[in-house]
Amino acid sequence: MAFVPFDDRDGWIWMDGDFVPWRDAKTHVLTHALHYGSSVFEGERMYGGEIFKLTPHSERLKRSANLLDFDLPYSVAEIDAACKATCEKMGLSDCYVRPVAFLGAEQVSVTAKNSKAHVAIAAWEWPSYFDPETKAKGIRLEWAKWRRPDPATAPSAAKAAGLYMICTMSKTAAERRGYSDAMMLDWRGYVAEATGANVFFVQDGVLHTPPIDAILDGITRQTVIEMAKAKGIEVIVRHIRPEELSTFSECFVTGTAAEVTPVSEIGEYRFTPGALSLGLMEDYGRLVRRQ
């Protein structure tokens, strides 16, 4: 499939209340967010004409902006409506949706007191992040060089663009070496998350997953915990040391893009996708597609 640059496509993007042609959806080079990282975003999936957990995503977008000390000029309901309208305008019923909020070019300074908050929403076709065969046998991850920051040094609860710089570097480095992704530790050395997905481990039929004190509390993560508990599967949220990975039989990652994807390898540790991982993967697929 030929590569199509994201700035050279047909379609429409919602920007500050209006639809503009895709190629004209631009902002100034002196935009505050470009220089100082004052940007937050969401990643959402529409399945069969319905955006999964849309309102929780819109709520998190506003919450993330507040954590970066700026307010969005739209309510959660207005953001929900704009996301739906964008998909409809694009003629899409199965797609990826990207709302982004950022401070504009009104002021170029470390301070942002005179900068205006802007919101844009784009949607495009995006098939499964990993093909079914890859998911069934599990993806391979290496250890990331970079660590998730201490919440006392960065707003780690926000889905902030600036926090993804270390994710970009880690995932790109991993892909260059033939891996699908990288697993990150937190600042203390505990297992944290992949570059864009939360992680779960299986030990004797019990799920273990890191707490949210250094990771993003993913909406897919929350959904999987609810699904597991509904099936009678025990879920233990705790700190996990890297050396403990040798005691786990299965591993999988969760996220809007990854959905539920089994893992076969993290660095020197190996896992075999089993009934629990594959079962939750299938359950999640049925849930989002309302089957």
Explain what the structure shows.
The protein folds into 2 domains: 12-125, 2-Layer Sandwich (D-amino Acid Aminotransferase, Chain A, domain 1); 132-289, D-amino Acid Aminotransferase, Chain A, domain 2, CATH 3.20.10.10. 27% of the residues lie in helices and 26% in strands. It contains 7 helices and 16 strands. The protein has helices spanning 32-36, 54-67, 76-90, 132-137, 165-176, 219-230, 275-288, and strands at residues 12-15, 18-21, 39-41, 44-47, 50-51, 95-103, 117-124, 139-143, 181-185, 191-194, 198-203, 206-209, 235-237, 250-255, 259-266, 269-270. The radius of gyration is 19 Å and the shape is globular. The model has no long low-confidence stretch (mean pLDDT 96).
